[in-house]
Amino acid sequence: MGRTIPSITLAFLEEQDSLKRFRRALRKADQQALDDLLAAARQHLAPAGYAAYPLPLETFLLAMLLEEHKEVMRLRTMVESRDRE
Amino acid sequence: MKLRGWLFDIYPAGQDGAAIWLIGEDGKRYQFLQPFPLTFYAAGPLHRLRDLWRFLSRQDKPPMLSRTERRDLFQSGPIPVMGITVGDQESLQGIFLKTQSSFPDLDYYDVDLNLALRYSARYQTFPLALCDLETEGRQIKAVTPLETPWEMDSALPPLRILRLEPDSDPNHSQPARLEIQYGRASYTLPLDPARPLLMDLNAILKQYDPDLILTRWGDTWLMPHLFKLSRDANIPILFNRDRSQEVAILDERSYFSYGQIVYRGQQVHFFGRWHIDSNNALLYQDFELDGIYETARVTRLPVQTSARVSPGTGISSMQIITALQQGILVPWRKQQGERFKTALDLIHRDQGGLVYQPLVGVHENVAELDFVSMYPGLMVRFNISPETAGETAGDPENLAPFPGDTPGLVPQTLAPLLEKRLKLKTRIRTLSKWDIRLKSDQARATAHKWLLVTCFGYLGYKNARFGRIEAHEAVTAYGREALLRAKESAEGLDCTVLQLYVDGLWIKHAGWKNPGDFVPVLDAIIGNTRLPIVLEGVYRWIAFLPSRQDQRVPVPNRYFGVFQDGTIKVRGVEARRRDTAQFISRAQMEILEILARAQNAIELPNYLPLVKELIRERSMDLKAGRIPLEDLIISQRLGRELEGYKKPSPAARAAHQLIQTGKQVKPGQRVRFLLTRGLPGVHAWDSQVPLDMRSLNIPLYSELLKRAIHAILQPLGLSQHAIFQASLFK
Fold first, then answer.
1. Domain boundaries, chain A
2. Which residues, 6+ apart, have CB-to-CB distance to B183 below 8 Å?
C-alpha cells in the first residue's frame, strides 16, 4: 500500500510553501488577501485532485478565480436587488 | 463410530498429522487424530526441477514427489510445478528449508500455510462448524460438515467459559488476588503463597473443565506469572486439555500497519482448550466473543488465532482458502512489482477516494446517504481482482465490469461475506432492542465490517499474497465515479451537496425533512450507479467544522449532528480520539447532549445558558481537584524506539519514566500519563511512583478543556472569549 504521487492536499501545501518568499515580501494587507485566496483554493481540493493535472497550481488558480467570481455574483445580486428597491 | 458435534480446534500433532477436537452433541469433549499429508510446490525451469527431483529423492526420508500443473494467479495460464508431499507440518518445514537453501532460484508455493486453513480447504470445515464424523478408535475416517460459514443462524455449542482476572491492573499496581468466575460461581484466591493457589486452580479447572479461559492481562501478565509460580513450586497447571502438548507462547512484536506502529503483546495459546485475553484480543471492545467466533468461522482461522490477529490476516486467510479450493497456488514470497506506467497515467491512477471540503456551518434537515460496503461491493460488482485488473485500467467512467469468464479470486472470496453482512444489517433494522439476536447480529456485522474494510487495503499491499496495486487503484477509480454520479443525481434533483466523503454524501433540499422526501434521490443514484445506497438518517441539524488553525479552511469529516431520533453523531473532534482524557471527552459529549435537545438550528442558542452552567461546573470540578485521576489520564502510542526521538513527545517522556522503574515499553505500545507542571511535564500512570497532587498541571488541562468546548460551540457563532467570559475559565 502507499501512494507514489503526493495527495492533492500535500501538493497544495507544497505550492503554498513555495509562495512563502512571495508572501513575506507583500505588504501586510496584501498578505491577508493572499491568505484569503489560498483558503478559497483549498475549498476545491477534491475537484483539483480528480482533474489530476500535471501542474496542480493551474487548478488552484482556477479555484481562486471561481471563488472570486462567486463573490462578484453575490455582490452583483445584492446591488441589483438594492437597485430594485 | 458415528458422531455429531462442533469442530472445536485443529492443530499439528507431530507425526500423527492433525489433532482435532470436537464438542459432541452428547456434551462430551473428544480428541481425534487424523493423518494429514501436506504438499508444497516448486516451479521454475524444467532442468532445475529435475535437479530438485534428484536432490529430494536422495534424502533420508524422501518426500512423495509428483509432476502436475497449477495456476499462478499472476501468470496467464497453468504452469508446470513439482508437488512435494510430506506426512506432517514439522517434516514440511524441515524439507522446505533444505530445498530452499539448495534451490533458492525456484519459486515456491503453499509453503507457510496454517494447518487449520489447509484442513478447512480440504474438508469445507471451519471453527465451530457442526459436523458428522466417522471415527475408528482415536482416528477420524470421514468428516462431513453440516453447514457453511454463511448461515445466518447457527447453533453454537454450549461452551464452558471460565473467567480469570487479577484484582488490579498489573501495569499499574501489583495484584494480590486472582478472581475466578464460572457461571454464577465465583472464587477469590490469594496469589501468594503459590502452592495453595496452584492446587486450588487445578481443582477448579478439573471441576469445570472449561472450553474457554477468558482472562484480562492473561497473555501479558497473568499466564507468565502463573507459569513462573508453577515452575518454582514444581506444580504443573492443567491449562492444556491435550497433555501431550506444551502451552504455546508467542513473542510480543511491533509492526507497521497503515502508517503507524502497532504493538501486539505476547500471546499464550492452549491446546484442546482456548485462551483469550480480552486486553490483547484485537477489537474485543467492539464485538466481544460473538465477533471472535464469527471471525473464526468466516476466516477459518482457529479461534485463539482469530481473536488476536488483525482483520488483514483474516481476509488473507479467506483468500488462501479460495485459492486452495480452486487449485490456485499461494505464493511463498510474492514478487509482483507495479506495472510500468507513464507519468501522466500514474498521476491519473494513483488517487484515493473523493473527499470534498464540506460547507462549514450549521445546516438543518440534512440527509446522509451511504453506499453499502462500497469498496468490497465494487470489487464484487465490477470483478476487481489482481488477475482481472492487473493489466488494464478497466472502464470506470462507464462503470463497466472487468472481463472474465468467472469472477476473480477476490470477488469470489468477498461475495458471500458481503451477502451475509447485508442480510444481517437488514435484519438488525427490523429487530426490536429487546430481541436476543440483536447483540449477536450487531457483533457479527461489526466483525464483517472490519474484514471488509481491510480487504481494500490488502488489495494494494505489496506483501499481501494476492495484492496488486493496479486492482487497488481500480477500486478507487470506480469509487470516485460512483460518488460523482451520486453527486450529479442529487444535484439533478436540486439538492445542495454539503459534503462528499469516499462512500457517503450529505445533502439538503429546501422543504425536505422526512426520510421519504429523499427516496427519489436514492432511486436516482441506484439507477445511475447500480450500487446499493441507503439513507443513514436525516439530521435535525449538523455542524461541519473548520480547521482549528484557520477558520476559513473547511476540514473533511470533522462534524457533529443530531439525527431525528435524537442519536448524536460525532466525527473528528476530541471525544472521538483515543488520546483524549476521559474528563474532556465526557464534558464535550455532555455539551452535545444538551444541544441535542434543540429541534432545529434556531433553537440552539436557547440551550446556551445550560451549556455555560455545565462549563462552569466542570471548570470548578477541575480546579477543586474533584476529578478522579483516572479521568485525567492521557493515553498515547509510542511512535518509535526511545532513542529515535529528537524531541521526546509526552508519551516518550512517560515511557522513559517507566523504563527507569524497570518496566519495558515497546514501540506501538500505549503509554498512560498525567500532565504535570514543570519538567518533564508528565507523570507515567503505571510507574508506581506516588504522584504529588500539587504537581498536576491544572491550567494545561483547563486549556485542553477550553479547546474541546470551543470546537463544539464555535459553529454557533460564539467566540472562545464569549463562552469563557461566562464561565470560570477566566
1. 8-84
2. none
Give B141-163 pLDDT, tens digit per residue: 999 999 999 999 998 999 999 99
> Among all residues of chain B, which has the CA nearest to that of A41?
B553
Which stretches within B129-249 are classed as H helix?
Answer: 194-208, 223-233
Per-window interface: B 240-279 vs A, CB < 8 A: 258
DSSP assignment letter at B222:
I
Q: Could you tell me whether strands B107-109 and B38-43 are parallel, antiparallel, or unpaired per DSSP bridges?
A: antiparallel
Cell representation of residue B74: 499472476
Among B519, B529, B518, B517, residue whose Cα is nearest residue B486: B529
Average pLDDT of the residues in B577-586: 94
Closest to B294 measured CA to CA, from B84, B499, B408, B446 = B446
Chain-chain contact of B553 with A42 (C-beta, under 8 angstroms): yes
Rounded Cα distance, B179 and B191, in Å: 10
Q: Are B476 and B352 in contact (CB under 8 A)?
A: yes
CB B487 within 8 A of CB B502: no
Burial, B188: exposed, middle or buried (Cβ in 10 Å; 0-12, 13-18, 19+)?
A: exposed
Question: For B409-437, what is each residue's pLDDT tens digit?
Answer: 999 999 999 999 999 999 998 999 899 89
Q: What element of type H or E holds B449?
A: helix B437-459
Chain B residues within an 8 Å CB radius of A7: 352
Torsion of CA A28, A33, A37, A42, to 10 degrees: 60
Cell of B350: 494513483
Cβ contact (<8 Å) for A50 and B357?
A: no
Query: In angstroms, what separates the C-alpha of B190 from chain A's closest C-alpha?
Result: 50
Q: Domains of chain B by range and CATH?
A: 1-157 (3.30.342.10), 361-572 (3.90.1600.10), 573-730 (1.10.132.60)
Contacts of A31 in chain B (CB under 8 A): none
Which residue matches cell numbers 487424523? Answer: B34
- Which amino acid would we find at residue B309? V
**How do strand B38-43 and strand B29-34 relate by DSSP bridges?**
unpaired
| Contact partners, residue B483, CB within 8 Å, separation at least 6 | B353, B354, B371, B500, B502, B503, B505
User: What's this model's pTM, rounded to 2 decimal places?
Assistant: 0.89
Measure the CA–CA gap between B10 and B12, rounded to whole angstroms: 7
Q: How confident is the model at residue B636 (pLDDT cuts 50, 70, 90)?
A: very high
Half-sphere exposure of A44 (CA within 13 A, CB side): 21
- Could you report how far apart the first and last alpha carbons of chain B are, in Å? 81
Q: How far apart (Å, rounded) are the C-alpha atoms in residues B180 and B547?
A: 49
Q: State the Cα torsion B143-B146-B148-B151 to the nearest 10°.
A: -160
Task: Locate all alpha helices (DSSP H) within B181-302, ordered by sequence.
Answer: 194-208, 223-233, 284-299
Are B30 and B22 a contacting pair, CB within 8 Å? yes
Tell me the C-alpha distance between B730 and B721, whole Å. Answer: 9
CA distance B602 to B588: 21
The set of cell numbers assigned to B431 is 429487530
Name which of B350, B356, B346 is nearest B483 in CA terms. B356
